[in-house]
């Protein structure tokens, strides 16, 4: 079978592109600790406020790190201010009480979709103490641009 020169060229070009796409995923996972969503946990979106997993919203800390329980709703995050320790793993557990929201901690790799009916969970470490802005990055309605919260990363002795 003979393959035309241009055909070969395009086949190689497509092959190189596929390898490049896979490489971006590998670099993202290994280099920036980005994780694809894999934690499937469901919740009744109409009972978020009384569900025992989300009844105590806020931060709990132990020696190893912290866990943040937060809810996204039109057009706020509850709680609105989150304090976590620097240099220790922080696990975020998020859900929505109405529509799909985003939870993006600007300037960090903390970013998740907050989907009604599901619990989104990710763990990250904040090396730099300071104040970070949390924004909703999924269009959720007229007040979308107002939907934000504050993350305060504190240096602990
Ligand atoms: Cu919530 Cu956009």
Global geometry:
elongated
Strand tally: 10
Which class do the helix and strand fractions yield?
Answer: alpha+beta
Bound molecules: dinuclear copper ion
Q: The biggest beta sheet, please?
A: 5 strands, mixed
Count of DSSP H/I helices: 2
Into which percentage range does the β-strand content fall?
Answer: 35-45%
Helix content: 10-25%
Q: Write down the secondary-structure element order.
A: HHEEEEEEEEEE
Radius of gyration: 20 Å
Low-confidence stretches: none
Q: N-to-C terminal Cα separation, in Å?
A: 71 Å
The overall pLDDT average reads 91
Describe the structure.
The chain has 157 residues and is of the alpha+beta class. Helix content is 20%, strand content 36%. The chain has 2 helices and 10 strands. The protein has helices at 5-32, 52-55; strands spanning 58-61, 66-73, 76-78, 81-85, 89-96, 101-105, 111-114, 120-125, 130-135, 148-154. The strands form 2 sheets. Strands 1, 2, 3, 5 and 8 form a 5-stranded mixed sheet that branches. A 5-stranded mixed sheet has the order 4-10-9-6-7, with no helix packed on it. The longest helix is centred in the N-terminal third of the chain and has 28 residues, at 5-32. It is elongated and about 70 Å long. The model has no long low-confidence stretch (mean pLDDT 91). The structure holds dinuclear copper ion. Residues 72, 75, 101, 136, 138-140, 144, 147 line the site of dinuclear copper ion.
